[in-house]
Design a protein that fits this description.
- Strand 1 and strand 2 form a beta hairpin.
- Helix content is 37%, strand content 6%.
- The chain has 109 residues and is mainly α.
- The protein has a two-stranded antiparallel ribbon with strand order 1-2.
Length: 109
């Protein structure tokens, strides 16, 4: 279901003349958006993020969103440095509707 959602977001962004970057969200909630320090015990509670290294304090979701945005900007920069090559996009799989006879296991006559 999420794969289909990601595909449609990419399609709609492309129709609007925008690019999308699918980035790995791993450890974004455990990484400091200011200094980059990562620690699995860095969050004091579910909502509060406090970096043990630099003291940066933020809402945990906003900190993770900033990390994801940074990764997206890094993808954009790398793409521009590579000379803006064409970006491949997966084509949606076409699904055939099954006929009434195929659904019930009946042989066509």
């Amino acid at each position: 279901m999420l794969g289909r959602l990601a595909t449609w977001v990419c399609v709609k962004a492309e129709e609007a003349g925008r690019r999308t970057w699918l980035v790995d969200p791993a450890h974004t909630s455990q990484q400091c958006a200011r200094c980059g320090h990562t620690d699995k015990n860095i969050r004091q509670s579910r909502d509060v993020f406090v970096c043990q290294r630099c003291g940066h304090t933020a809402h945990a979701d906003l900190n993770a969103a900033a990390n994801i945005a940074d990764r997206g900007r890094a993808c954009e920069t790398a793409w521009r440095q590579a000379g803006t090559p064409p970006l491949p996009r997966r084509t949606p799989r076409l699904r055939r509707r099954r006929t009434q006879t195929a659904r019930h296991g009946l042989a066509p006559t």
